[in-house]
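Appendix B: a complete holo record

For completeness, this appendix reproduces one full record from the ligand-bound portion of the collection. The bound molecule is zinc ion. The inputs are the chain sequence and the ligand SMILES; the output is the full three-dimensional arrangement of the complex, encoded as structure tokens. No fields have been trimmed.
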Amino acid sequence: MSNNSGGSGHDVHSFYGKKASKLIRSLKEKIERREEEFSTRPVPDMCPRYGILGPCPAWDVFPTQLAALDQAEQDPTLFVFAFESSTFGGAGKRQFVVADPRVFYDNFRNRPLAQRTAYEVIPVHRRSKLYFDLEFEKDLNESKDGVAMTKVLISIVQHLIESTYNVPCPHEKIVNLDSSTSKKFSKHLIFDLESIAFKNNLNVGNFVRSLCEKITKSCTDNSTTDLTQSIDHDFHSLFVNTKDGHKALFIDQGVYSRNRNFRLYQATKYGKNTPLLLAHDATGFTFNSNDEDIFLASLVTFVSPSCRTVTFGDQELTDRPKPALSSLNNVKCAARLASKSPFEELDDFISNQINGGTIRRWTYFDKTQTIVYTIEGYRYCHNIGREHKSNGIFYVVNIATMTWYQKCFDPECRGYKSAEWELPAHSVPWSRGADEADWSNNSSDESKSTPQNETQWSKEWWDDEYDVMMQSADIDLLGRSGY
Ligand SMILES: [Zn+2]
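The structure of the chain with zinc ion bound, as generated:
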């Protein structure tokens, strides 16, 4: 067993000898192994080589977003990208790559579609392009023409950019990406303007919220506004029916939070094969454009150094405060029906795991710092490896340990508990070890940031049926604190 080949793994003598075929076989095996590794690993660890004049070839992988952001902060040419793992048990778990965008894209573009589950992390300290996430449910909005709506929105944006900042906002500079399905209209618009960039994405959020208010005002007051005078369109067309029976703009205003993860050009959501591609109604970058150019133009924080920095609104006022965990201490348990919990990022994370399902209810247990999410419309159970026909599942999220797991209401799965998975840092940005530093400026007065309505946290929301359901599912919630 003394194969002294200097660590290369191959005996140099065999290369020329009759062992050649054996070597070829072993190389083939090695390549196959490598292929398999490539398809199962959440993040590739190899890096293409560049000449000395090319981009910085650095390629660092981090388990937490905070560590990745810290690394990228040292060098403005490096960006943070989040990768979603597709390996079993780690489903949806994110890892973070710090790399030059061109180096990253070179690797990313060559991965099979199912592995292209990646996002740009938009650091709050970086300058940001104006970007939009547009969406609506098609079956609730059969008469809606998303392409025509997008066109109206673009003319509104052009008018507001030109009148507010006195710079051009040409069609050629708009990246129009689409990942619509038969069920859902879904678009990203990124304005790759040459002359201005926003101070950060919180300022972009302020600009977009103001734009949305102007549209709403024109529709509700029926009054003549600056917008209606300049643009001859019926803005009512921009409102859509939502799942909860309301009317709302098709502009998602929730994508302007700190260190937001925004899906990349050509990337797909985890478990779905619908990549974000150039839209058919794209006017700027078109199908003749170079893919790498589109990729770079679509990056929200890939801003030209010559851009003038602009601001909009007061970011401190519109920034969301940390959820007040301490205010929950007097409540043994609290439950609320189908609506958002104070843990917005956590809600988002869970919503992203359930493939079109919805969070039916969330419940917070203060003793264990645990939130239970019961799920509707998605029944995938890790115990049976497929969806149940009628019984639902629920997830238990432990804020203290930053982990989550799945349990099941089906009698056959009684007592089952999946493996515990780590929560990605972006889902608990207010948690220790996550992006705590980001909250230090506005966490001084927690009494101001109690949940909007205290009664929502009272025991009234707790109903017996739910209690029984939890017990029958044999949930081990209070065990940790000795109950
Ligand atoms: Zn089950």
